[in-house]
Amino acid sequence: MSGGGGPVIPNFGSASHCITNNDLFCTDWVRSNWSSTLQPALLDHLKLTAIAVVIGFAIAFAAAVLARRLRFFEHPFTLFSALLYTIPSIALFQVLVPFTGLTETTVEIALVGYTLLILFRNTLAGFRAVPDDVLEAARGMGLHGREILWRIEVPLALPSIMAGLRIAVVTIVSLATLAAFVIPEGLGRPIFIALRDYFKTEIIAAGGLAVLLALTADAVLVLAQRLLTPWARARAA
Amino acid sequence: MGESESRVILFDDVSAGTFLDAFRFIGDNGQLIWDKTVEQLALSGAALGVAIAIAIPIGVLLGHWHRGSFIAINVSNIGRALPSLAVIAIGISIFGISFTNVMFALVVLAVPPMLTNAYVAVDEVDRDVVQAARGMGMREHDVLFRVELPLSTALIFAGIRTAAVYVVSTATIAAIAGGGGLGDIIVNQASYRFEGVLGAAYCVAALALLADFSLGGVQRLLSPRGLRRRPVVDPEVATAQAFGH
Amino acid sequence: MIRKHTRRAVKAAFCISFGVALILGGLAAGAMSATAAQPTVKLGTKNFTEEYILGQLYKQALEAKGYKVEYHENIGSTEVVDKAMTSGQINVYPEYLGTVLSVVFHKTSVPKNPATALAQARALDGKRGFTLFTPTPFYDTDAMGVLNSTAKNYGLKTIADMKKIPGLSICGFPEFQTRYAGLLGLKQAYGITKAKFVPLAGISVYEAMDGKKCIVGDVFSTDPQLAKPSKYTVLTDPKEIFSERSQTVVPIVSTKLAKSLGSKFRQTMDAVSATLTLPAMIAMNKAVAIDKKQPAAVAKAFLKANHLS
């Protein structure tokens, strides 16, 4: 289709009838676009989630340890993280953009904020669930602060902590789909772009991957929970 | 048709003032906010209605027959894990774009916690009480409606409360799919500027809190002190999880 | 024994999280104090298919010539992308000339002569520290589209005929409501006041029209869905509220960046722009929107065929 003097318009390749017809699911499209579109989105999504949960856990854990010793700290921190929680994520992203730009940092700050409430509450609840006589006995045996924390309180709080981690991970996998509002990363990106053109195959492929990722992460954490706390077969929240 | 005075559009940077200006936006645009809120509540209400009609009967019956415990309990874990945007997007691609289809996606997200709670509520009614009822000659549906259900109401309601808060917040995302509601304002910073986005965000938060608060009040009314039990899907934990998405 | 195991695992997790937090903090700090030998091109695009293609074309052409490009795809509408430019988050993006005047500078009448429009835009943007490079041959304008059946039913030829439609509803990007090249122009130039607006934040306008969500849709003139034979009819715009011929694409570049990167940068960009004729753009739009090829792949093939990469 190159006119005289005009640019060369190459043949961009034809598309199967399935694609041009916008049938529900075209496996040929998925196969040819896996490594260029779907796989990077999936890996980015994993990365965004992992970073957010790891940092969120570090902060929530430290805060819970602090709240354990300083009673007054609990309320303000809970209030702060609950407040962050009620802001719809899309709004929070937009508020952060002028400060941290259209970057991964913006997304991570928001995602970390969303993990804080559930991780803090569950960790603190776990600590609180440690019976007082166990602590007495520990002190009686001559253990001091940090040893009690790591050798007694944390292991006993693990079921609650793991339950919180499970909810947090699953929540962040879901929220990370909205990160595409700010940066072209994560499974939300193919979903948004495909919604614009109403391209069913890509919507189902990317959406399906997000669902699978969330369910897999949930299952993995249940397994980790069983392995790490075999004595606590109690139903987790 | 003369030229309008040339004016460069520059959004205000977000400052402390913007957070307060958001309230002024709500005041100045009362009609708009009201219309969008009604849209969001209509969508959420419809989704919840359908979800209740599906989840409660199934959950209650399974609990009454003490069957399907694995599925009934785990469906809420699976449901909680579903990324809302993905569910809405997949629903649209399969069924097309319309109010009904966005609503069905929300139904999918609302059913799990209600089903699980309904199941556990009826399943865990004291067996002795049920035995006694049967022993008195009550027929099956009397046992269900006059003994098991009254004892389960509070827990069933806790499930509805959890689902309600979740649906009201998630309906915000439905705007991306043409579902309307306050999300329309939140994704449209171009027209409504930061004040609008923040104002609508405050409203969504307020709506979710209101739903939680009012349903929580009803829940407390429905549960006589002696019968309060800890629900499987803890409304407080799940509420904490559900907000804002 | 299990406790020791667990304790170690938790300690390890804790240390790792702090470590990661520190590293990320360090990286973020490092990124902010960027002093590259050559300034980075921060290229952004608006939020629809044609812009993704344009973005990829410029991005790959620049990278082929050794420039470092930070790519911010799909930022949003003009209003939002302009803010990204003025706040320095990006320093280049492709915009439509008429839109610069009508949306950024709020002009209600855009010059019908593209050259005049360009001069006006250059003068106005120059004051903000932005330079406009050479425009493309092709133009792409908003237009009002309807299903063929609708056009036949109501006898629709021009936008003014829209008044004949009872229960008129229009779908478009949310910003259509506040633009002169939008509802404002429809009202002021054509007297169309009784229209219900359906904002489409994330879905296709063609899908919306097919699904009867609205009767009239805000379409783009280079959309492949409009290429004959088409299911849709485009209504003519005699009062030119959509300023058709002035809607060529022109890269908006921060003057500071243009100066520091010099004439070779400008030439690279202009060389790409020169190849973007209407047939070329429609072909690329079709490849992406209908045949579902990736914009990056389509841009790559085009640049290669024209010896620009």
CATH topology name of chain B, in short, is: MetI-like fold
**Number of beta-strand segments of chain A:** 0
β-strand percent of chain B reads: under 5%
| Main sheet makeup of chain A | none
Q: What is the CATH topology classification name of chain A? A: MetI-like fold
Estimate the mean pLDDT confidence of chain B: 80
Q: Encode the helix/strand succession of chain A as letters.
A: HHHHHHHHH
Spell out the helices and strands of chain B N to C: HHHHHHHHHH
Level-1 CATH class name of chain A: Mainly Alpha
**Which CATH top level class of chain B fits?**
Mainly Alpha
The number of helical segments of chain A is: 9
Number of separate structural domains of chain B = 1
How many beta-strand elements of chain B? Answer: 0
**Unreliable spans of chain B:** 1-12, 230-245
Q: Looking at this structure, what is the CATH superfamily of chain A?
A: MetI-like
Helix content of chain B: over 70%
CATH H-level superfamily of chain B: MetI-like
Which features does this protein show?
heterotrimer, A: MetI-like fold, 9 helices, elongated, C: 309 residues, D-Maltodextrin-Binding Protein, domain 2, 2 domains, five-stranded mixed sheet, three-stranded antiparallel sheet, globular
How would you concisely characterize the structure shown here?
The complex is a heterotrimer of chains A (237), B (245) and C (309). Chain B has 245 residues and is mainly alpha-helical.
Task: Chart the SSEs and their pairings.
The complex is a heterotrimer of chains A (237), B (245) and C (309).
Chain A: H1 17-20, H2 27-69, H3 74-86, H4 89-100, H5 104-128, H6 132-140, H7 145-176, H8 188-197, H9 200-228
Helix pairs in contact in A: 2-5, 2-7, 2-9, 3-5, 4-5, 5-7, 7-9, 8-9
Chain B: H1 16-28, H2 30-65, H3 69-81, H4 84-95, H5 99-123, H6 127-135, H7 140-170, H8 183-186, H9 189-222, H10 235-242
Helix pairs in contact in B: 1-9, 2-5, 2-7, 3-5, 4-5, 5-7, 6-7, 7-9, 7-10
Chain C: H1 2-32, E1 41-46, H2 49-64, E2 69-76, H3 78-86, E3 92-96, H4 97-104, H5 114-126, E4 130-132, E5 142-147, H6 148-154, E6 169-172, H7 180-190, E7 196-199, H8 205-210, E8 216-220, E9 232-235, E10 249-254, H9 255-274, H10 278-289, H11 295-305
Parallel strand pairs in C: 1-2, 6-7, 6-8
Antiparallel strand pairs in C: 3-10, 4-10, 5-8, 5-9
Helix pairs in contact in C: 2-9, 2-11, 4-5
